[in-house]
């Protein structure tokens, strides 16, 4: 145990030093007629939030291996054994260490689905165009490998897909349904907020907890009203339904495997803009990441920022401009705030959310800002703000700041102005710190 603890601390320190080094030496360019190197703002492609080396991937917080030959929904006795990272896992791959592979988000989703189909003979994957690979190619080749009886297309009816999935899971199958776009999930609203509670309605006689609904969500830059929405807030009151939004390939695979095996129905929302833009080294073997636990991506003492999905990378860009404002922002960013210590938290599970991690952070920093793409009214930000105000009132130094999408239809021509960009976030940071 002591050796493992020392191993964990040593590797964690090494990983922290590597990430600190990478942050201290960002990519830079030299403008014409200038000898001064200007640091480039981070993007999803070079984000420090991504784990692009094998060592960092294996040290993902909360990662637990699932090496059993057969894994279904729920927790078996074998699953309770110690499944944390061990010294042997860190060996080079050629010496038997855990292998990783460079993947983007859609490849990580496909890897998770392949794992489920291979280890759970009762599992089925279905949805519109799924047997062809899906519109984003997340199920490419699975029908050829596992057969059309287990990976198959459905009619174009979201209501029918959800109802069919509830029926399958009630009869003992592990049902993984895909809604082609989250914007079209509303015809299935009744099934997901009412029928998915079958366990409670029937007094435990029936159970559809082995149902997982996957759906691409959020803005992509040109989706407009019916292909860019973030509908997670509509389901916050659907008691018994869990809601998950991953930020990266490692998170997508581990959280999806946990969602499918969780004994409760789960709505798994996949930010479509990250399908090909976010790339990490991802363990190729079976692993899970915990549902209901937020992750502290960056520790700080002056301000807490909570987000999930793509806005995390926008926050990272805003923090870069806070530290090193370009010529347009130079006069607008107070110098005494450029060394601000910010704690950044990825919520990951939208419901049930990890309020304990947020409260602990806010009690330390005294300030909170919440950022997401969905509209403000009745939102995740509103719920978190109310909870933090109730629990941390005497420790707050400023009102909780909510930076979200607007309470308007998602206009195609104005998509750029709808989303909370780095300038709005930067302005929100300054306003919160100057209160």
TrEMBL record:
Alphabetized Gene3D superfamilies for the sequence: 3.40.50.920, 3.40.50.970
Coiled coil: none
Domain Transketolase-like pyrimidine-binding, chain residue ranges per copy: 103-277
Region (Disordered): 1-37, 71-101
GO MF annotation: an example: branched-chain 2-oxo acid dehydrogenase activity
Enzymatic class: oxidoreductase
Catalytic activity: N(6)-[(R)-lipoyl]-L-lysyl-[protein] + 3-methyl-2-oxobutanoate + H(+) = N(6)-[(R)-S(8)-2-methylpropanoyldihydrolipoyl]-L-lysyl-[protein] + CO2
Keywords from the named record: Oxidoreductase, Pyruvate
Pfam family, one: Transketolase_C
Signal sequence region: none
Cofactors demanded by this protein: thiamine diphosphate
Regions of compositional bias (Polar residues) in chain numbering: 25-36
Listed EC numbers: 1.2.4.4
Biased composition (Low complexity): 1-16
Example of a GO biological process term: generation of precursor metabolites and energy
Domain of life assignment: Eukaryota
The protein's name in its UniProt record: 3-methyl-2-oxobutanoate dehydrogenase (2-methylpropanoyl-transferring)
Gene: FGENESH: predicted gene_7.309
